[in-house]
Design goal:
- By secondary structure, this protein is α+β, with helices and mostly antiparallel strands.
- The protein has two domains: about 100 residues, Malate/L-lactate/L-sulpholactate dehydrogenase, four-helix barrel (Hypothetical Oxidoreductase Yiak, Chain: A, domain 1), CATH 1.10.1530; about 190 residues, Malate/L-lactate/L-sulpholactate dehydrogenase, NADPH binding domain (Ribosomal Protein S8, Chain: A, domain 1, 2-Layer Sandwich).
- Helices cover about 35% and strands about 15% of the residues.
- The radius of gyration is 20 Å and the shape is globular.
């Protein structure tokens, strides 16, 4: 499937404006459309190409099929001083999780730690989007979600009962980029499989296997097998626990109940997510902590290198470089994605990118 194609670059503001136009045309209220568009364009800006504008045609299809509530009543259904449970009323996941992050930070400012769970939500883009929100408040952010389709069996099994169930943790620093871990519990997130499929490129060996245990490298055959967990049974264990915390604890779907939103455009996904905000000042002086994080940067960077490595990188460092590059040069759109977005613009009767 190897295919070489040249991407054109678009300005983040132009991308945001296009996404907003498309969502408004799909009957999302203007204010909500602007919020979602900003978060989706931000995802592309820091390099989460599998979870940004590439998802727009899918979101629009689901909205037009009635699978997403365009005017949700996102509300708190349970609450204590440091915790809350949100019901997203089947609204766009970006709206639900933005409200969850805001509420978690409000609670952390009072209680030191704020934990907010969500049910009745939907796909919300990359995990780091929400963990990073805490950074502006000198807080540490942690986000976990149940994925919107199962791509992983329990260790040793063949029935796909688990999703990629990602986690993101964002930690601020003084003069360095924040340390931001954003990872799936599988070797690769399924969004990366979708990206390679769209680009006509092969997957590396080790991402997926079929039900006979043989590697799958053609993303067109993704339905013939399943993703592999990170660290073997350890990744399976993380996926299981994250599903219990983000799904079962919140009254959201998990296990066999998960709706494959790639195949089903109508059934509410009842996606479960959680966000935790930790107020650094509740534990240590903020400036002291950030300076110590800088020291950790220097310590990690000072390690002698193995043969074949040219530097030590910390989680979030590549994203910081990508943001700087894409803000200066624009966000690359693969020709196939560009074509799909033009088709979507025609279908919705809005101005294309």
């Amino acid at each position: 499937m190897h295919q070489t194609a040249v991407a054109r670059c678009v300005d983040e503001a132009d991308l945001k404006a296009f996404i907003r136009r498309a969502l408004v045309a799909a009957k999302i209220p203007e204010e909500d459309a602007a919020i979602v568009a900003g978060l989706m364009a931000e995802a592309d800006a820091f390099g989460a190409d599998g979870h940004g504008v590439i998802r727009l045609p899918h979101y629009v299809r689901r909205i037009r099929a009635g699978g997403i509530n365009t005017r949700p009543n996102i509300r708190v259904v349970r609450e204590r001083s440091g915790q809350a449970l949100l019901d997203g009323d089947n609204g766009l996941g970006h709206l639900v999780m933005r409200r969850a992050a805001e509420l978690a930070m409000e609670k952390a400012a009072e209680a030191g730690v704020g934990w907010v769970g969500a049910r009745g939500s939907n796909h919300a883009g990359p995990a780091a989007l929400y963990a990073r929100m805490a950074l502006a408040r000198d807080m540490i952010g942690l986000y976990i979600a149940v994925g919107n389709a199962n791509h992983l069996p329990p260790w040793g099994g063949t029935e796909m009962l688990l999703s990629t169930n990602p986690i993101a943790i964002a930690v601020p620093s003084a003069s360095r980029p924040p340390i931001v871990l954003d990872m799936a519990t599988t070797v690769a997130a399924y969004g990366k499989v979708k990206t390679l499929l769209q680009r006509g490129e092969d997957m590396p060996v080790g991402w997926m296997i079929d039900r006979e245990g043989e590697p799958i490298t053609d993303p067109r055959r993704a339905n013939d097998g399943f993703l592999l967990p990170i660290g073997g049974p350890k990744g399976y264990g993380l996926a299981l626990i994250f599903g219990l915390l983000a799904g079962t604890l919140n009254g959201a779907r998990f296990g066999r109940d998960v709706i494959d939103f790639n195949a089903d455009q109508v059934t509410p996904t009842n996606t479960g997510q959680l966000i935790v905000a930790i107020d650094i000042a509740a534990f240590i002086d903020v400036a002291t902590f950030k300076a110590k994080v800088d020291e950790v940067w220097e310590t990690m960077k000072s390690s002698p290198l193995l043969p074949g490595f040219d530097e030590i990188r910390l989680p979030g460092e590549r994203a910081a470089r990508t943001v700087a590059e894409r803000k200066a040069k624009g966000i690359p759109l693969h020709p196939e994605l560009d074509r799909q977005l033009r088709t979507l613009a025609d279908e919705l009767g809005v101005a294309p990118l």
